[in-house]
Amino acid sequence: MAKPASAYRCTECGWSTVKWVGRCAECQQWGTVVEASEQTGITRSLKPVAIGASQVARSITEVTTEERGHWPSGVGEFDRVLGGGIVPGAAILLSGEPGVGKSTLLLDVAARVAASGRRVLYVSAEESVAQVRLRAGRTGAMQPELFLAAETDLATVIGQVDAVQPELLIVDSVQTVTSSLNDGIAGQPGQVREVASTLIRLAKERELPVLLVGHVTKDGTIAGPRLLEHLVDVVCQFEGDRQTALRFVRALKNRFGPTDEVGCFEMTGDGISEVPDPSGLFLSRGAAVSGTCVTVALEGRRALPVEVQALVVATKAPQPRRVVNGVDPSRVAMILAVLERRAGLRQIGEHDVYVSTVGGVRLIEPGADLAIAIAIASAMRDRAVPHNLAAFGEISLAGEVRPVSSAKQRGSEARRLGYTTILDVEAGSVQAAVGRALAAATTERERELDAAF
């Protein structure tokens, strides 16, 4: 009898094939197909393990609830995302693109926790101790209770934990630590799975919170097996454009708090700083000019005013340009069609249109449709929208202004910042909203002229 060909199996989804391939045909993951062990056909029975008196299952009504309180890390915006702070025994995964500032943020967290009297062990598997010390000196993270170690072996990391006895462990990063129990190189799914499961088991057994840094792939997802996200308690994503100083921390998974909170930070030459009230980051401070309108966007539970700017220029080209920055190009194209068909801007197809946001923020929600439409109409008519006007609402193809989520919270934030005229779903149609905005612009211009003379 011929010997059956060796099978290969995906470590992510279990898909099998008779030959090795680099990419799994089922889950589309790279590098997860490995050679499966030979099947002998012998089923071995497991012997039951004796259960002690303290391990016997109890009725759910007899189980007492022990509230695990959060203790603050000292970084308010990070605690907001975590749901109030760090929970003992929690495994937290922080992912982000290279150079976005993950190590800087965690070094700041480590310094704040060490300043409160708790011992912190920062294990760097990517940098030397001298490099981390240099960054800590620049950012002011020098604390006697902050211990540094540069290790890439998992057993040595556990030995450092036994020697230091920290109350917080930070590993930067989980993809660069290797375990001798696995034959793969650092970063392979087997190694990442072994290292992460060991560190998480260490966190649960010793009530030691562990912060893990995770790399991301080209498409922005967390590198390594999907099992990594299932094992940890909290998955945070650190995002931001490296060309701008603003950074956001979002919780994609949180067993101890909400997943719709957003923390705002700003990268400076001295490190990273919190932005508890980012209201003024996305607004221009100059005089009122045509082609600008303020909307109120939602980032998690936080309402942020964002200024949308538009520029309309006449052109003789057969294909007018449509250049956008910070907004969805397809929504801008739809809004232009609605303005031409429903709002009376017949000549918009003969103009180049440029739409952008202030401060590098990206608007992906439909609530900014009305502000984009007003900004384009203002630039088309060359009338400056008043500073005290804000608009938010979704525009349908029929030209109607549809309601958006958390409209009351958006309106309250706009009024708190001094916007007395708010255009929303009560405007009825985009034509009426644009007409009201341009009428308010004309009235304010007349008042300015009267004041000048």
From TrEMBL:
Source superkingdom: Bacteria
Kindly list the positions annotated as binding ATP: 96-103
GO terms for biological process? proteolysis; recombinational repair
| GO cellular-component term (any) | cytosol
Instruction: Identify the stretch(es) annotated as Lon-protease-like.
Output: 352-453
Identify the Gene3D superfamilies for this entry. 3.30.230.10, P-loop containing nucleotide triphosphate hydrolases
What does the record give under GO molecular function?
Answer: ATP binding; ATP-dependent DNA damage sensor activity; ATP-dependent peptidase activity; damaged DNA binding; serine-type endopeptidase activity; zinc ion binding
Domain RecA family profile intervals: 67-216
Residue ranges for motif RadA KNRFG motif? 253-257
Instruction: Write out the entry's keywords from A to Z.
Output: ATP-binding, DNA damage, DNA repair, DNA-binding, Hydrolase, Metal-binding, Nucleotide-binding, Stress response, Zinc, Zinc-finger
Q: Which PROSITE patterns match?
A: RECA_2
The record's HAMAP family line, in alphabetical order, gives: RadA_bact
Free-text function comment from the UniProt entry: DNA-dependent ATPase involved in processing of recombination intermediates, plays a role in repairing DNA breaks. Stimulates the branch migration of RecA-mediated strand transfer reactions, allowing the 3' invading strand to extend heteroduplex DNA faster. Binds ssDNA in the presence of ADP but not other nucleotides, has ATPase activity that is stimulated by ssDNA and various branched DNA structures, but inhibited by SSB. Does not have RecA's homology-searching function. Plays a role in repairing double-strand DNA breaks, probably involving stabilizing or processing branched DNA or blocked replication forks.
Stated family? Belongs to the RecA family. RadA subfamily.
Domain comment, as recorded: The middle region has homology to RecA with ATPase motifs including the RadA KNRFG motif, while the C-terminus is homologous to Lon protease.
Q: What is this protein called?
A: DNA repair protein RadA
